[in-house]
Design goal:
This protein has about 325 residues and is α+β, with helices and mostly antiparallel strands. It folds into 2 domains: about 30-220, no CATH class; about 225-310, Alpha-Beta Plaits (2-Layer Sandwich). The chain has helices at about 1-30, 80-90, 170-175, 240-250, 275-285; strands at about 30-35, 40-45, 60-65, 75, 95, 100, 105-110, 110, 115-120, 130, 135-140, 145, 150-155, 160, 165-170, 175-180, 190, 200-205, 215-220, 225-235, 255-260, 265-275, 290-300, 310. The N and C termini lie far apart (about 90 Å).
């Protein structure tokens, strides 16, 4: 009897240690930055990518776990899908739903909070490379790199585990973390483009992507740095609009400039965290007390980082 109790105690101790080890390992491979709404995950370029010639180099996943379709994925992450999902929630992101088809057969795009994905690695000379994930993906149809997008935190879906009767993330069974196509309803993050209906449209960009087996850092940014070019029309000159814009930008740590144009409009460039830039933009739509804003034209441009403060230009 004592021997049996001893074996049970040892078994539970072993399980507890394994769970603790797993949690510690996850903490080492996933770094969470709540204030910046960003996570960083360790991984590597898939060694099995392009293994099957019949796939003609096509990839269906930007990232998967070790148990996923590593032969169709560009990156293999050193974490479990549930750990990845929970990390996104810890930085304040809300999941939506993966792409699907309604009862009439109409395509329904994925929903959820938007993120941008970056991949970082060291080249053979030891230089740190940092690129948007899209730069490493080739669009076979356009023969160009993949269009820059805000990826969607679709959130996979939950199902009941038949053994424990608990709700578990479906991605935990498939290993699907980030997909470039819309055919997998278990994936956590999904490509928002309608061209994702074609599962063979993407391949790895051989000109920019690091070699298979290269260690990488997978960065998901829920509040990325952006640049907006803004044109404001209406009664916006001679009413303190530029001072109002600079004060608002300074309050929200947004850089760039604002200036009057000869045609009576006001031009501004706003650079900073998306949430901060959107905050400034919201106030510019109203303007100072004596302004009468009629129209605000917005164009998102590539973030440059060259603006160190906010200036009024003449």
């Amino acid at each position: 009897m004592l021997k049996r109790e001893w074996l049970i105690a040892v078994t539970f101790t072993f399980i507890a240690l394994m769970l603790a080890y797993s949690s510690a390992e996850a903490a080492q491979t996933i770094k969470i930055f709540p204030d910046q709404k960003r996570i960083e995950v360790e991984g590597e370029m898939s060694l099995e990518m392009g293994q099957y010639k019949q796939l003609e180099g096509a990839i269906e996943y930007l990232a998967c776990s070790k148990g996923g379709k590593t032969y169709e994925s560009m990156v293999v992450l050193k974490c479990e899908p549930t750990e990845f999902y929970e990390a996104l929630k810890k930085i304040g992101l809300k999941p939506g739903k993966p792409a699907s088809f309604d009862d009439s057969g109409k395509h329904v795009p994925p929903s959820g909070d938007k993120v941008r994905i970056f991949i970082e690695w060291k080249n053979p000379k030891g230089k740190t490379m940092h690129m948007r994930a899209e730069d490493l993906i080739h669009n076979k149809k356009t023969k160009k790199t993949m269009q820059y997008v805000d990826w969607i935190f679709a959130g996979s879906a939950f199902m009941e585990d038949p053994e424990t009767e608990k709700q578990v993330l479906q991605a935990e069974y498939t290993g699907s973390i980030v997909s470039t196509h819309h055919g997998d309803h278990t994936v956590i993050i999904q490509n928002p483009l309608s061209e994702a209906l074609d599962e063979s449209i993407y391949s790895v960009n051989p000109k920019l992507a690091p070699k298979p087996g290269t260690k990488i850092k997978f960065i998901v940014d829920g509040d990325p740095m952006v640049q907006l070019f803004v044109l404001i029309s209406g009664e916006v000159q001679g009413v303190g609009f530029r001072d109002f814009t600079r004060q608002t930008a300074d309050e929200m740590s947004v850089c760039g400039y604002v200036k009057n144009l000869r045609n009576g409009k006001v031009e501004a460039v706003l650079e900073g965290r998306r949430s901060s830039v959107n905050g400034v933009l919201k106030k510019l739509r109203i303007g100072p007390e004596y302004a009468d804003v009629e129209k605000v034209k917005i164009e998102e441009r590539k973030f440059t980082g060259k603006y160190k403060d906010f200036q009024i230009e003449m």
